[in-house]
UniProtKB/TrEMBL annotation:
Protein name, as recorded: Condensation domain-containing protein
InterPro entries from the UniProt entry: Alcohol_O-acetyltransferase (IPR052058), CAT-like_dom_sf (IPR023213)
Region (Disordered) residue spans: 157-198
Domain of life of the organism encoding this protein: Bacteria
Bias type Basic residues, positions: 180-198
């Protein structure tokens, strides 16, 4: 079941799904979050990134919510905050940033349940997004990260927000067909950087 997005601050977006309630119950006593990193081949300004993050929140509504546990049933409420952004010292290894991020719990309120760190590096930069598990899994987090890269580097317009699906619904729909057999002795080549054409 999906519920239409509500944009008024403090309004209920939708109740947490069964799986989301389980995750939220667990993180209430054992906070867990995960980080994803985009290494870019060109710099991104600290002054321009907040606008891209705001656009990302519009595209992915759960990046702009808090979890309200005071109601009889836990619900997502629209948060008043923007995605927090920090800028690391130039040349800081992103691995060090990620290690620290895993020691900093993301509280369920006042939200949002995601934060960002810009890591300047020569010749480009890295962007670290850290998510609370109540709002997404690795698949959804990767989608958000790629959308941020597209909006930041390539100037792509993100599509308007739609309904807010439950995490288990997203996982089911993105399973996709079976992967073809791997070549080259079972090894798959991966690109470590994201670059835009042109």
């Amino acid at each position: 079941m999906r519920t239409e997005v509500t944009t008024s601050q403090g309004c209920v977006v939708r109740p947490l799904g069964a799986f989301e309630r389980t995750i939220d119950f667990y993180t209430h006593r054992n906070p867990i979050q995960f980080s994803l990193v985009a290494e870019l081949d060109r710099p991104v300004s600290a002054s321009g990134l907040p606008s891209a993050l705001a656009t990302l929140q519009d595209r992915h509504p759960l990046l702009g919510v808090a979890v309200d546990r005071t109601a009889p049933e836990a619900v997502y409420r629209v948060s008043e905050g923007t995605i927090p952004l920090e800028t690391a010292a130039d040349g800081t290894p992103w691995q060090a940033i990620v290690a620290v991020e895993q020691t900093r719990p993301i509280p369920p309120a006042p939200g949002p349940l995601v934060r960002a760190v810009l890591v300047p590096q020569e010749p480009g930069c890295a962007i670290v997004l850290t998510f609370a598990h109540q709002i997404t899994d690795g698949v959804g987090g990767l989608r958000a990260l790629l959308d941020l890269v597209a909006a930041t580097l390539c100037g792509e317009e993100l599509t308007p927000p739609g309904d807010v699906p439950h995490v288990q619904d997203v996982s089911t729909r993105t399973g996709g067909p079976p992967r073809p057999p791997r070549r080259n002795g079972g090894r798959r080549r991966r690109r470590g950087r994201h670059a835009c054409g042109g």
